[in-house]
Amino acid sequence: MNMPVEVKETPEGKTGHLLKIEGLKKHYVLSTNLMGKPVKSLKAVDEVTLTIREGETLGIVGESGCGKSTLGNMITRLIEPTGGKVVFENRDLLSMSEKEMRNVRKDIQMIFQDPFSSLNPRMRVFDIIAEPLRTHGVATGESLKKRVEELLEIVGLNRSQGKRFPHEFSGGQRQRIGIARAIALHPKLVVCDEPVSALDVSIQAQILNLLIKLQKELNLTYIFIGHGIPAVKYISDRIAVMYMGEIVEMASKENLFKATKHPYTQGLIDSVPIPDPLLRRDREELLIKGEVSGESDPGEGCRFYPRCPFGTEMCRIEKPSLREHAPDHFAACHYPLS
Amino acid sequence: MSEPLLEVKSLSTHFFTEDGIVPSVRNVSFTVNKGEIVAIVGESGCGKSVTSLSILQLVSKPGRIVGGEILFNGMDLTKMTEREIRKIRGNKISMIFQEPLTSLNPVFTVGNQITETIRLHQAVDKEQAKKLAIELLKTVGMPNPKKQYSSFPHQLSGGMRQRVMIAMALSCNPELLIADEPTTALDVTIQVQVLNLLRKAQRKFDTSVILITHDLGVVAEMADRVIVMYGGEIVEQNDVYNLFKEPKHPYTKGLLNSTPKIHQLEDSLESIEGNVPTPENMPAGCKFNTRCPFAMQKCIENNPDLERKGDGSYIRCWLYEDSEQEKAEAVVSL
């Protein structure tokens, strides 16, 4: 079943690694024994290894609770990992002191899902965008003002709007403010955690296009976390699919959709309703049945085994590792689809 | 054409707030035929949810229906007393909401809540109601229905809760089911299961459905006919195939162009400029004129009417204004 497939090489010039994640994990202890040793823990993110190339957008998709946001938060160390490495430009972020980390934060910024709770309601927009510049002592006085005004214009707002407060803006405009703040310090990597999920359809496209434009102009690298597969597909060069804390498939966007290997990925793609009534599909036979089990300890085998239509005894007993089945196309499955 | 089950005629619902009157729904007219799935699409604040709440007479203060008729099997729901409407609500017309956790009572078991609905509208005893409830849970694909009958809402996942909501909504064989964003809070693999279930139930009981959603994918998968709302008004109405094949209103076109498509590898998204207007800054004239790439002087001055076209579609746009002669022909053909 494991047939070699012809694959296109990834675009040239995107070979330099900006970030490497090795065996990253976050386990939450659910209960301990008398000695304080964990007996039961929830593996929110387990042994995730991936690399992000300079200038690319790596999409991370998965359903709620799959660990995608935890992964994003660990990269910026907003959540402290239980183990593993996050290597940014050849330095391990996890072994850095808070002070060293602060310096790196200039290079790694984040855009959050909810533009309502991620902006301080008591600060004027000008100060929200100026805050990172002030904190890092990058600009003061007239040059600060100039930079903030420039940033407002870059994200499609006008200078005068800096005087206003966040509540005076719509969701899409607030997300623009969040983006202006994120790019203020000329970061190299921006972790976008579901940046369009809370927005109206017509506004989602605006923000996605703005992110793409900024990436080209400012030479940014993105990690784009999302549960909306069409949006992730639109913006990403490569996509990693997560299921219950693990990456189950990772490939260029073309290969992920054309030569899907993992049954979960296939099920996920097939579940997305297509906005064309002529392509209405017969939904009688669903590839993925049931739902994510609430079990904190999924046992020995493949975590997708209980829902997988192709699961065998082997899948129940032995956990498949993430292997390269075709050039630059990784999947964690004993019986890849193509 | 089959006969209409629900006829909404010139419905207007306003909210009388401290800061003034907010006309959330203005002059909305549409029909739902027997066994038909009608989707209402639009973005936040377009009036789609208030329209559905108006049908069930569930608009709460400071909101009020200020005009229009809602005929259900020929009876005007707006003229009914609370007692009369209760016999219809949950019985002949039922509703599924977006967030099942807030629409289920956390202190009663799932079974309790389903049997309550059944016993409110049907003359059955406790034992029979329980049997019916378990049967319904089975119909909606609840694993181990006997056991889940005694679970509390918080013990169930989002998808399972929505199944309970659907079971409750179907418990009295309603003639009309209003589903307000029924799958928005769910993951895609669960969404497809719930949509499947809705469609199956709709076919089995020949229920009419009003499906309120912002997701054009869901519309394309489910609907027979589509109503597009913007700024409290209907801007376009057509059958699902023609709407997607040939969208007419610039807003409908914009919405389709700004939706990323999973079935096309190389796509480019065109976005609609500007922001969704809030009631306070609703423009005069056509409500879409601030964002419309084709806006003319006329659009800023006057709001076009929702006009019926020769092909059966309805459109509210000056670009599609019929000449006087065409209008006369249309009248003759009616």
TrEMBL record, chain A:
Keywords: ATP-binding, Nucleotide-binding, Transport
InterPro entries reported for this sequence: AAA+_ATPase, ABC_transp_ATP-bind, ABC_transporter-like_ATP-bd, ABC_transporter-like_CS, Oligopep_ABC_C, P-loop_NTPase
PROSITE patterns tied to this protein: ABC_TRANSPORTER_1, ABC_TRANSPORTER_2
ABC transporter domain sequence ranges: 19-269
GO biological process: peptide transport; transmembrane transport
Domain of life of the native organism: Bacteria
SUPFAM superfamilies in the record: P-loop containing nucleoside triphosphate hydrolases
Gene Ontology molecular function: ATP binding; ATP hydrolysis activity
Pfam families cross-referenced by the UniProt entry: ABC_tran (PF00005), oligo_HPY (PF08352)
Family to which this protein belongs: Belongs to the ABC transporter superfamily.
NCBIfam families (UniProt xref): oligo_HPY
Annotated PANTHER family: TRANSPORT ATP-BINDING PROTEIN (PTHR43776)
Protein name: Peptide/nickel transport system ATP-binding protein
Organism, scientific name: Edaphobacillus lindanitolerans
UniProtKB/TrEMBL annotation, chain B:
Calcium in keyword set: no
Example GO BP: peptide transport
Keyword Transcription regulation: no
Residue ranges constituting the ABC transporter domain according to the UniProt record: 6-256
Record GO terms (molecular function): ATP binding; ATP hydrolysis activity
Membrane topology value: Peripheral membrane protein
Subcellular location: Cell membrane
Keyword line: ATP-binding, Cell membrane, Membrane, Nucleotide-binding, Transport
Predominant cellular place of this UniProt entry's protein: membrane
GO cellular component: plasma membrane
Family in the record: Belongs to the ABC transporter superfamily.
Name listed for the protein in its UniProt record: Peptide/nickel transport system ATP-binding protein/oligopeptide transport system ATP-binding protein
Organism whose genome encodes this protein: Edaphobacillus lindanitolerans
